[in-house]
Amino acid sequence: MRNCKNSSVVKFIAIFGEIVIINCCYFLAFYVGKEDLSHHFFIKNNNFLLFFNLSYFIALSQVGIILHRRIVNLEEIVDRVIKLSGLHFIVLLLLIVLSQAIKEVKFSYFLTLFFSCLTFILLWRFIFLRILRIIRIKEKFLRPIIIVGSGNIAIEFYNRIVENKANGYKLLGIFDDKNDNFSLHDNTIISGKLNEVIPFLNKNKQVEEIFCTLNSNENEKVLSILSYAENNFVRFYLIPDFKKFLNKKVRLQFFNNIPIISLRREPLDNFINAFIKRSFDLVFSILFLLTVFPILLLIIGIAVKINSKGPIFFLQKRTGKNGKTFTCIKFRSMQVNKEADLKQAQKGDNRITRIGVFLRKTNLDETPQFINVLMGDMTIVGPRPHMIKHTEEYAKLIDKYMLRHLGKPGITGWAQVSGHRGETKNIREMEKRVIRDVWYLENWTFGLDLRIIFRTIYLMLKGDETAY
Length: 468
Prior knowledge:
This protein has 16 helices and eleven strands. The longest helix is centred in the first third of the chain and has 31 residues, at 2-32. Strand 1 (143-148), helix 6 (152-162) and strand 2 (169-175) form a beta-alpha-beta unit. By secondary structure, it is of the alpha/beta class. It starts with a helix and ends in a 6-residue tail after the last helix. The relative contact order is 0.07. The chain has helices at residues 2-32, 40-44, 48-63, 74-99, 107-137, 152-162, 197-203, 219-231, 271-290, 292-307, 354-362, 369-375, 388-397, 414-417, 427-442, 446-462; strands at residues 143-148, 169-175, 190-192, 209-212, 235-238, 251-255, 258-262, 313-319, 325-331, 379-381, 410-412. The strands form four sheets. It has a five-stranded parallel beta sheet, sandwiched between helices. Strands 6-7 form a two-stranded antiparallel ribbon.
């Protein structure tokens, strides 16, 4: 099958390129660190290069490479490369510790090596994908396919996937007994009935893939086409139409050959994803609490005390993962008042102190929550935790409100950086926030977390107009 050979070639070139890149980074890191390549390091650590390459292959076997796919999301590439690099160096560290064969490796060298590999692999994959898309546009590299079915899902598949030549598909035919929905500008595409599919495939041996959008009412005809495809090296894909009652990604699982569709995709249920997120939380929060936070505590603590009577920190019970209650820590930005656990901060709120206005505008009042992150009650990026009273109220008023508590609450979140921070004046505003919180949990990637963090820093420096 030509498509299998092409995929294998693409994988081989991509992996070979990365092997060259990581080994160049290996020597580049020496150069940056001004190591003596001729004597000092190689004599003491002759196993390091072997471990370095071995750990890459172990990591690659777990993460995989997706450049051979015709449809690849750029965000997914970023996410995969970050996972690959993280796992690569975790395995490398384990090999070093377990073997005890490496005498000494400078931390600065290790850090340079990690970031250079991450950067250049990411750059290589972007360039390689761009080259692939340019090549696939050419006629001889287009993958010949047919579509069986002409309903709305078939039209959408054609418009979004097939018509974009960069995806590398060439439609030869569209077949359906009710072929009256499809309007094609390309007269070279053949239209026919379902009983004409197999004769067409016999005549056109170059067809590599069949995309079927028929429903279960056409079982017999679909099965005959499927049987032919499997016996003639043609890949068969079934595209079910869930859009009548679903408008998001779903996950298909099998229990004893019974297909079960999971309506909610949660990437953080995956052990590796959860491990990467928690590791980043721990490293980032420890570094922050040991370096920046002591300075903030001294300056902000004095300012809070001078500005108003009361403690430096404001402690409040909030709703955490799976509905569990935890104590959220903040720098106090309000006068001590009895409504703190009942009433949300509003624009022009006279409870907010002068220093509190600045703290809330810049998000600095949230920085003690890195302690919550370290304790495991929160994460750096996730849905913002709400006070208990709000959880009880909105759970009754907003459908699927509690879904936002499937993950740990965050110091910052997708809703906050997309303009839904601060006071919620009505139910509709809270619904918009919940929609974004749930979307984040269902579409999490490490790349998305980094994007939200950078956006948060930008808003802190700029001053968020929705914060008060």
